[in-house]
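ok here's Homoserine kinase, seq below lol
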Amino acid sequence: MRASADARLPVGSVRVEVPASSANLGSGFDALAVALSLHDTVEAEIVDGPPGSARVTVEGQGAGRVATDERHLVVRAVHRALADLGHPAPALSLFCRNAVPHSRGLGSSAAALVAGFAAGYALAGLDPTAQPTAARVLQGAAAWEGHADNAAASLYGGAVVAWQQDGRFDAVRMPVHPDVHPVALVPDSESATHTTRGLLPEQVPHADAAFAAGRTALAVHALTRDPSRLLAATEDRLHQAYRESAWPDTYALVQRLRAAGVPAAVSGAGPTALALTSGGALPGEVPVAGFRVLPLPVDDAGVRVVA
Ligand SMILES: Nc1ncnc2c1ncn2[C@@H]1O[C@H](COP(=O)(O)OP(=O)(O)O)[C@@H](O)[C@H]1O
Ligand SMILES: N[C@@H](CCOP(=O)(O)O)C(=O)O
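and the structure came out like this:
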């Protein structure tokens, strides 16, 4: 980090690395997620220019598609973090190297928001990976998303349990058992999270809610202590079937993997499927044509300020 051109901010540039995430893991809708070793990198620098303006260069995922000015999601999050501390919006130059595919259920928007809030607080001289600033990063990103699962995983790494109380978001991190080897199956198709959230019913049967409570609690045990329980733990009645029309091929793949004994679930709001394998391999008899198979080890670190 070097000294800022803007006298109001102590730091002139930061580099942040943030992992993808897979949320829900079955029944743990808006509550469970795991961070995955696929990373976006953001370099943010304060430059001379009109206050609040931004020039963004994007390499990799999202290049040519996302805004390259102050409307860019990461820029908006940087500005929001600085506003939270009472700083006026500086002119920014951003370089984004993105590996997390957009609109696939791997938490790209949460990763972008966590990177932006972390960069903003870091420019103000705070450590976004330590409390109490980390909690502010979570609050900012989760409030933007409307759910804290992905943001908490991108922030803290490992697996997380996230919840909301009195309008505030909170989360705890859990270490994932070393025998859990996530494999993402990523199709070419996209699906916007806000669209598939709209497919969910206002209410679910009490029996399904009770089912979800049991499976989600079991998932915490299975992820951290006993991966042999993951097949039962990742069963879902809370969201996947309601969203099937958005990604029928993904839904069918998850059923095929599960029938072959592989703990699998739709990743976040889809259309990626996530298999929580014990050795990193998928059974040969399950056809995966149309899906890119990406072994993605758990990311234990979460967001990092690397320079
Ligand atoms: N790194 C990024 N930079 C800018 N915008 C991003 C980035 N990542 C995600 N987004 C925005 O978020 C959208 C995807 O969000 P969402 O529908 O929640 O899917 P995902 O499951 O990938 O988070 C993209 O279309 C894009 O507008
Ligand atoms: N709990 C959320 C998770 C969305 O994850 P994303 O990676 O698809 O954005 C949901 O299921 O809506």
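fwiw Residues 40, 62, 66, 72-74, 96, 98, 102-110, 112, 192-193, 268 surround adenosine-5'-diphosphate (ligand 1) (CB under 6 Å). kinda neat tbh
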